[in-house]
Amino acid sequence: MLSAAALLLAAGADPGARAAGLRLWALAGAGVFAVAPPNVLFPDPNVSMLQRLNWSPPRLLRYQARRLGPLVLLAAVPAVLVAYGDSGSPLQHLGVKTVALGQGLLLIGGTALDSFVHFATLGARSQAWHEGRAGQWYARAVEEQGQGISLPRGLVPALFATTRCFAVGVAVVVATAAAAANGLHGLAWAPGALLVGWAGVRLWRSRAAYDRHFYHTTAFYAEVLGGGTVAATDREPVPYDALYWVPARWRPAAWASIRQLDRRLPLGRLVAVAHLGLWLFCIRGGAPAFITGYLTLVFTGQVAACAVLGTPSAAPRPFQRALQSVGDWIGTRTFVNLRWFGPHMGSLALVVLFGDAYGWAWVGTWAAVHVGLSAAAATAVTLATEGSVRSAA
């Protein structure tokens, strides 16, 4: 989706606009790298195996850097498309496009490396805050003035780190843009290069003792996220009463299924991002065939997520068959899939209200498509799980 958006936004843009777009994309990447590394890296799911293998500190560093690699590619690949995605004149201004891409990738790499180093070595500082050996000024502000954020004390350094990493990313992007705007094209490389060098020096200094940083930080996050003594408050599950639109016969199972799905997959965030992409494509005047394919992909992906509820850990098959019949599970999962029916149709209604390319019949057609896909996905998952138990019996 990001690649398609990059191609659409860059279509027909001149080299100057592409350079500006790459800097804006690097700014967005700075926001992602300020938030995502602790969620991607910690707690490490393979820590027990790594302790048995007893890898050297440099090898642990390479292992953890590879785990962040897909996130860097998620930012770098659309940047390449913004730079070179030019169907009208793909071979023109290659030098200017390459320079802009190089500066953009340098900014993306610098912010990614800076955030990686900062978060990967945060364990000792977080533990010190939790034990009261650091952050006394913050404790006094909370206790005496009632100020502060409702978080376990050990998580406050991670919150500060998010702000700090994003501020650094904004600073280097703005400095690069200022140098380019004033015609100092050579100096436009300096902010990104300095950030890469600064982060690289810090990482090199931590290299010899990286095993201490790795195990300390992942142990702290495992305690926070795994229900230890400093466990953070979990997000409130969907209330039972909120499922008033589900028939009473299937409501208890639908509620339990939605809770399981929410624990395993942040589907609401993915649906929101998908519709942001839809609005972007519609604003840019995307072809109806492209919009149709995009919505088909979004709706199919959303209903296909109910396959998570068919895994053995989520749905022990004999136990599921003891609770409900196959037909009841199909009905239950159909309504689980229809949970996002309202947001989907509301988004399409906004497209109709603020544009003239589509009408209300278009919304009705997609409503029918979503209901059909919800029932089809629910039927397929149920026949492959509870249905297979009945066949075996």
Automatic annotation (TrEMBL):
Keywords: Membrane, Transmembrane, Transmembrane helix. The chain crosses the membrane at residues 23-42, 68-85, 105-124, 155-180, 186-204, 267-287, 293-315, 336-354, 360-384. The keyword Chaperone does not apply. This is Uncharacterized protein. It comes from Salinibacter ruber (strain DSM 13855 / M31). The lineage of its organism: Bacteria, Pseudomonadati, Rhodothermota, Rhodothermia, Rhodothermales.
